[in-house]
């Protein structure tokens, strides 16, 4: 952890700072994110979290969720572009009545069912290479019944269709006319129906995107008229921009000690954390010795103290017990997880398992990790924890992009993944543990980095049964059985939530309490006081 502290110290700042009066009275809300520049504002193709802040304000989805938290039940899902909907008893047919009179930005006409059809045709077309098309594989067909009604037919039952595929930002509705007319240019000249519309994409990549309130918005007008989304990759520069008042909100650093260091240098700042943000897991490569032995994997699970990791990452890290975090419907909690798969910290149990596996003195292995603060910090903590059991993990720290590219070609031993998912309990399991998602050496596979279900029997039959269950409560029971099974086999160890944090200036009122959600949230109620 000394290495982590050194990294954080590199972002050291001087004394206390105050926001200049000029910035306090600014009518423009300015945000800065840890990226080098804009990639795309097309919701179907976005792979950079910083870009999603523009996307969620420019576009709308059929449904909406409460500001500040994931729905605790389907009753909390709210109308948006769809004003009402019905689900068939088998959860395979969903019909949506669209809101009438919704206008596209900048004179592109009225939003109709044809735009909804076009949006989902795009998302389901593999030739379009939409970044999140896997979310929409269960959609068998989409049909319109007149200009204001759309029906989705699903291959398998999905009682969580609203908060799964339709709750993800990539399902934002786009206009057929504008996308067809603009082509590739739509990525940086988008047209939506949302509360903000694009003013400009700045020529300097770091200067990002400027938005202004949509005068024709069908809902309440944003409390702050203008928004400027900037890209400042350097942590020190981004932090100084907040303290100087050049920006009002910045993306925080998900590393031990960073929040405490900021709190010491400036009073009154707000720390908004969306939990889970993303879910951090480690997977054991079952093709590599000694990870082919379940006793070794279980021993490492007992040595990795997840409570310690969560405490070090506070307030952005929360302990997870299963692959689905506690904030998700059906996620295991400290009270609900079966005792035999809790894996509470126990060096004694770990050493006994290692001795039984013929490794009483531990072993040495090499693993790649990313230089990004959250990946590197967690792996440095795990490195220290494993040493208690005689396990020496030699870390090779790589550029974040290169790390992901290599890991996607099956080059690692102890894989790390930090991924955001809709609050759908089967989705993370499908993506990280199903046989069809096995990683491939040519890069064509998925993020099942353990080879679970291929090298050793997995949970695919159990997963298929869960996906065929239309009743939410029964489906959750089946998911609990799946999680208990894979935790016994231990191809993957859930570590913690990797909550997404923005640091907000004292004079900025968010307008609601943030509890859970994705790594982005709407700022329509936010105002500078």
From TrEMBL:
Task: Report which superkingdom the organism of origin falls in.
Answer: Bacteria
Q: Might you report a single GO cellular component term?
A: outer membrane-bounded periplasmic space
Gene3D superfamilies associated with the record: Dipeptide-binding Protein, Domain 1 (3.90.76.10), Dipeptide-binding Protein, Domain 3 (3.10.105.10), Periplasmic binding protein-like II (3.40.190.10)
User: Mainly localized where?
Assistant: periplasm
Question: Per the UniProt entry, what are the Gene Ontology biological process annotations, in alphabetical order?
Answer: peptide transport
Query: Which Pfam families has this protein been placed in?
Result: SBP_bac_5 (PF00496)
Sample GO molecular function, one term: peptide transmembrane transporter activity
**Subcellular location(s) of the protein:** Periplasm
Q: Where is the Solute-binding protein family domain?
A: 76-409
PANTHER family the UniProt entry points to:
PERIPLASMIC BINDING COMPONENT OF ABC TRANSPORTER
Name the family: Belongs to the bacterial solute-binding protein 5 family.
Q: What is this protein called?
A: ABC transporter substrate-binding protein
**Organism, scientific name:** Rhizobium jaguaris
């Amino acid at each position: 952890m000394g290495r982590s502290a050194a990294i954080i110290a590199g972002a050291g700042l001087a004394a206390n700072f105050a926001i200049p009066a000029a910035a306090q009275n600014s009518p423009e809300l300015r945000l800065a994110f840890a990226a080098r520049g804009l990639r795309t504002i097309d919701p179907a193709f976005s792979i950079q979290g910083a870009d999603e802040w523009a996307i969620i304000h420019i576009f709308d989805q059929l449904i909406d969720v409460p500001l500040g938290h994931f729905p605790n039940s389907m009753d909390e899902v709210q109308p948006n572009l769809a004003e009402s909907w019905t689900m068939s008893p088998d959860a395979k047919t969903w019909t949506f009545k669209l809101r009438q009179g919704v206008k596209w930005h900048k004179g592109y006409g009225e939003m109709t069912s044809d735009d909804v059809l076009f949006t989902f045709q795009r998302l389901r077309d593999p030739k379009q290479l939409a970044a999140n098309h896997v979310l929409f594989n269960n959609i068998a067909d989409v049909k319109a019944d007149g200009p204001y009604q759309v029906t989705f037919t699903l291959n398998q039952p999905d009682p969580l269709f609203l908060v799964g595929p339709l709750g993800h930002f990539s399902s934002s509705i786009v206009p057929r006319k504008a996308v067809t007319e603009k082509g590739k240019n739509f990525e940086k000249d988008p047209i939506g129906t949302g509360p903000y519309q694009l003013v400009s994409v700045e020529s300097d990549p770091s200067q990002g995107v400027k938005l202004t309130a949509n005068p024709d918005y069908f809902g309440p007008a944003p409390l702050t008229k203008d928004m400027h989304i900037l890209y400042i990759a350097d942590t020190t520069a981004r932090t100084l921009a907040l303290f100087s008042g050049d920006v009002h909100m910045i993306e925080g650093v998900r590393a031990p000690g960073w929040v405490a260091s900021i709190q010491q240098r400036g009073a009154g700042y707000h720390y908004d954390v969306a939990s889970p943000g993303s879910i951090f897991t480690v997977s054991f490569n079952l093709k590599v010795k000694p990870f082919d032995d379940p006793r070794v994997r279980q021993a490492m699970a007992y040595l990795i103290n997840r409570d310690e990791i969560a405490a070090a990452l506070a307030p952005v890290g929360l302990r997870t017990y299963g692959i689905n975090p506690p904030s998700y419907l059906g996620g295991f909690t400290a009270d609900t997880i079966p005792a035999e798969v809790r894996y509470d910290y126990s060096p004694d149990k770990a050493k006994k398992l290692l001795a039984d596996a013929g490794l009483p003195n531990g072993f040495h292995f090499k693993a790649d990790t990313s230089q990004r603060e959250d990946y590197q910090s967690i792996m440095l903590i795990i490195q220290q924890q494993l040493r208690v059991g005689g396990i020496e993990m030699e870390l090779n720290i790589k550029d974040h992009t290169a790390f992901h590219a290599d890991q996607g070609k099956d080059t690692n031993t102890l894989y790390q993944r930090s991924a955001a998912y809709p609050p759908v309990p089967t989705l993370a399991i499908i993506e990280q543990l199903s046989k069809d998602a096995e990683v491939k050496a040519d890069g064509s596979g998925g993020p099942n980095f353990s080879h679970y279900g291929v090298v050793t029997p997995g949970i695919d039959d159990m997963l298929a049964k869960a996906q065929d269950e239309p009743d939410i409560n029964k489906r959750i029971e089946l998911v609990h059985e799946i999680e208990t099974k894979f935790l016994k086999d231990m191809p993957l160890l859930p570590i913690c939530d990797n909550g997404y944090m923005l640091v907000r200036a004292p004079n900025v009122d968010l307008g609601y309490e943030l509890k859970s959600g994705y790594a982005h949230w709407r700022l329509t109620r936010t105002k500078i006081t």
